[in-house]
Automatic annotation (TrEMBL):
Official protein name in the record: pectinesterase
Family statement drawn from the similarity comment of this UniProt entry: Belongs to the pectinesterase family.
Annotated EC: 3.1.1.11
UniProt-listed GO biological process terms: cell wall modification; pectin catabolic process
An annotated Gene Ontology molecular function: pectinesterase activity
Keywords attached to this entry: Aspartyl esterase, Hydrolase, Signal
Pathway listed: Glycan metabolism; pectin degradation; 2-dehydro-3-deoxy-D-gluconate from pectin: step 1/5
SUPFAM superfamilies: Pectin lyase-like
Taxonomic lineage of the native organism: Eukaryota, Fungi, Dikarya, Basidiomycota, Agaricomycotina
Signal peptide: 1-19
The keyword Secreted appears for this protein: no
Domain Pectinesterase catalytic: 36-249
Broad EC category: hydrolase
Length: 311
């Protein structure tokens, strides 16, 4: 799979970028500013998106500080880049533009439709924007629903509770960002997704990932050098009560990259198979069948990069 080798190289390149501020619009970008009355500016992100022709032209948006309470749905044919206001482009911690909405599956017809930000187009990039679904416990409620090819999210933060990040279709990259939730909060079926250098924050006892890969296709999730922490205000019992993942279907596929070669853990035999939690320093399974790699351990409690086979 070429994906496993190309994206780590991309991650190294992005890590080398020198931190800078982005407090004014790049040349040619359409401006979104809360409460604006200026000609040519927009009060909402969706209005800015809708202002573009549905053609193959490349467009960009710059978002000034503020919380924009709206759903954003992107389907236009041409490439689109969204930039958020920040004083440090190398991290999510200085992001000042937030898209927020309260929407759950009890109010929608599909997981996709719960998403605060829905990407249904190719060649999409987003830098330093926070995306939140504030629905909370009780139902699936996505911050991001990602269906496009060649999508990249750099220094972005995604907040939710259940099903925060729907990496469902297409090739996609998440670098140096933040992903928060409790239950199956990184999940999808056909996505080919790479997660590098992110902070993954757990809000309560549960499962971080749920791969719904349904056949022996190219879909997989690759994790490299991410850090797992407890989220601020995490529920009682979170410590020692969460697992890195569980299968959503019978052909789940994950890869954890560690020097000098990737380690792959393939689930294709029993829905009862789980990853043991990071706290136990061991991955295992229950149910029938034999996984490709039955046990792994690591040398640091929060660094997925340190995974190594048990000898």
């Amino acid at each position: 799979m070429q994906f496993l080798f190309i994206l780590p190289a991309l991650f190294v390149f992005v890590q080398a970028v020198i931190a800078a501020s982005r407090t004014s619009p790049p040349s040619g970008a359409v401006v979104v500013r809360a409460g604006t009355t200026a000609s040519g500016e927009f009060k909402s992100i969706q209005a800015a998106v809708n202002s573009f022709p549905n053609d193959g032209s490349t467009r960009s948006i710059f978002i000034y500080p503020g919380t924009y309470t709206e759903k954003v749905y992107i389907t236009r044919k041409g490439a689109l880049t969204i930039y958020g206001y920040t004083t440090d482009t190398s991290t999510y911690t200085q992001n000042q533009a937030t898209i927020s909405f309260n929407s759950g599956l009890d109010q929608s017809s599909s997981n996709d439709e719960t998403g605060t930000l829905r990407i249904h187009t190719d060649n999409f990039k987003m830098y330093n924007v926070n995306v939140k679904n504030t629905r909370g416990p009780g139902t699936q409620a996505g911050a991001l629903s990602q269906y496009g090819n060649r999508a990249g999210f750099y220094g972005c933060a995604f907040y939710g509770y259940q099903d925060t990040l729907y990496a469902n279709q297409g090739t996609q990259v998440y670098l140096k960002g933040y992903i928060e939730g409790k239950t199956d909060f990184i999940y999808g079926r056909q996505g080919l997704a790479y997660f590098g250098g992110n902070t993954i924050a757990v809000k309560g006892p549960g499962y971080i990932t749920a791969s719904g890969r349904q056949s022996d296709d190219a879909g997989s999730y690759v994790f490299n050098a991410n850090t797992v922490i407890q989220a601020s205000g995490a529920e009682s019992g979170t410590s020692g009560g969460y697992y890195f993942g569980r299968p959503w279907s019978l052909s789940c596929f994950y890869s954890f990259r560690c020097p000098p070669r990737p380690i792959t853990f393939t689930e294709s035999f029993s829905r009862t198979l789980i990853f043991k939690s990071l706290r136990t320093r061991r991955f295992g399974s229950s149910g029938t069948g034999t996984p490709t790699v039955s046990h792994m351990c690591y040398t640091q409690t929060t660094r997925l990069l340190e995974l190594a086979p048990v000898v």
